[in-house]
Specification:
Order of helices and strands: HHHHHH
Distance between the termini: 22 Å
Number of strands: 0
CATH class: Mainly Alpha
Shape: globular
CATH topology: Arp2/3 complex 21 kDa subunit ARPC3
Radius of gyration: 16 Å
Number of helices: 6
């Protein structure tokens, strides 16, 4: 198999696994009563920003919430939570990829930038959607910020550990993590 095709296959496999995690983690979190407060879908999509090329990370970030909505009903399509999350996840993965590309091998600058931009996107879109639906935008934005804090904590704790494990266990799929 040529190098170009093996790389494409590699990224297909990595992103299929990331998307599968993005689809199953929310179901597991909801099943044990942890719900959306821990932002379980965002964990693998953030990790993907460190693992995959930009195009793959953006596509998987955008597609996962929509596919999840169609398969599981979470996040809902209406009100447009799935659309908001699709934009948020795209920003999360894209910023992680872009900043990590400039600061490699350091993880923290990209991690913090991605999380901050993702939360800012979520807050801004919550404000906008609230206005469109005639709800109090300030309250919606603050609720979005506060509700996501446990998830932000989880992201900051888990992603560096997973990346460290992947770096020490170098394998075919993650040879340049």
């Amino acid at each position: 198999m040529s190098g170009m095709h093996s790389n494409r296959l590699r990224w297909m496999v990595v992103n299929a696994v990331i998307m599968a995690l993005g689809l199953t983690l929310p179901v597991v979190f909801h099943a044990v009563g942890l719900g959306s407060k821990f932002l379980p879908m965002l964990l693998p999509l953030l990790l993907n920003g460190f693992l995959s090329p930009l195009g793959w990370a953006l596509f998987t970030g955008a597609a996962t919430p929509v596919i999840s909505a169609l398969l599981t009903g979470m996040p809902p399509l209406y009100p447009p939570v799935a659309a908001v999350m699709s934009v948020e996840c795209t920003v999360l993965a894209g910023v992680a990829r872009l900043v990590h590309g400039c600061t490699r091998p350091r993880v923290w600058p990209a991690l913090v930038a991605a999380v901050v931009c993702s939360r800012a996107t979520s807050i801004g879109l919550s404000w906008l959607v609230a206005q469109l639906f005639g709800l109090p935008p300030r309250l919606s934005a603050v609720a979005s910020l506060v509700q996501g804090l446990p998830g932000v904590t989880l992201q900051l704790a888990v992603v560096p550990l997973v990346l460290k494990v992947l770096r020490t266990r170098r394998g075919l799929l993650f040879e340049d993590v």
